[in-house]
Amino acid sequence: AQSVTQPDIHITVSEGASLELRCNYSYGATPYLFWYVQSPGQGLQLLLKYFSGDTLVQGIKGFEAEFKRSQSSFNLRKPSVHWSDAAEYFCAVAGWGNKLVFGAGTILRVKS
Amino acid sequence: DGGITQSPKYLFRKEGQNVTLSCEQNLNHDAMYWYRQDPGQGLRLIYYSQIVNDFQKGDIAEGYSVSREKKESFPLTVTSAQKNPTAFYLCASSIDGREVFNEQFFGPGTRLTVL
User: How many CB atoms lie within 10 A of CB B39?
Assistant: First the structure.
């Protein structure tokens, strides 16, 4: 069965510093991968998605993610973090029946 | 504005009572989904519907029921059989549930607390 692992429960970075959130997936076929962001008490918003082609995917709000098949990873990056980026981030893989399987999430805190 | 609305935002119920959470979308999407979110566990799929008058169980359907009588509405009932119903519930929709690359759009959620 497909699964998603986000190894970091919490990450704290200073404003202006770079960010990398890790995501590892388990899926037998070519994965469809997503990153979502959730502000406290709110719904989720799609940041970016990968299906095929270029392994470096650009998303909204200055985020990007790189698909590495050999490492089964889809890490999210941002060169310079803003205080408004503080939120919870979810990685997801589309699995059997076109259903999304989500990781447990990584909470990002931004220090000023 | 097009979007998904969930009501109420906060809901309190006594143990043993059934409660229904509302989800409405005006995006003209065919597919709708219900997720449960607990701290540290991500989102887990309860039920989904790819078309009106049809729905399928997700990974944690026990103790829940749904209906899809109208395209724009997908209410979720949390029954007394659900052993641990206190959670944050999220509704989502996508234009076509058969195509995995279609984005799922999420509502703002309902926080249910059972006392």
Answer: 12
